[in-house]
Design goal:
Layout: H1 2-32, H2 39-61, H3 65-88, H4 94-127
Helix pairs in contact: 1-2, 1-3, 3-4
Protein name: 4 TMS phage holin, superfamily IV
Keywords: Membrane, Transmembrane, Transmembrane helix
Organism: Anaerobranca gottschalkii DSM 13577
Amino acid sequence: MEIKKEMGKKWLLPLVVALLSFVLLFTAVKFVLQREITLQNLIAYLVFSIIVGFIIFLLNRFHLKIALVTTILGLTFGFIEMFRSFIKGMGGWGDLIGILALFMWTIASIVLGLVLQLGYYFYNKTKK
């Protein structure tokens, strides 16, 4: 019974992050940009959300807390930047800039989180 609770806790955060990512992407394009959503858009949102959820699951599963928090913060800043550029408009380039900002913040936060986690690991190893 404890194993089921443990696995439930491991899956809850990635599912919430994946679901929020999908909803935020859908909301941004449908309501902020006021664009029509196609099946191709939905598939792209779903794939991005699944990838992000899987990365969060792996970081959570292997207890990489620094990388996990950094990645979630990067996602948050990425979505904020995406919404900001969608709202601002930027002369027709706002939609492309917003999506690229989301991807760049996400990738940068994953890499930074893993580098910080590795530094923390080596720090603890040399401390002993």
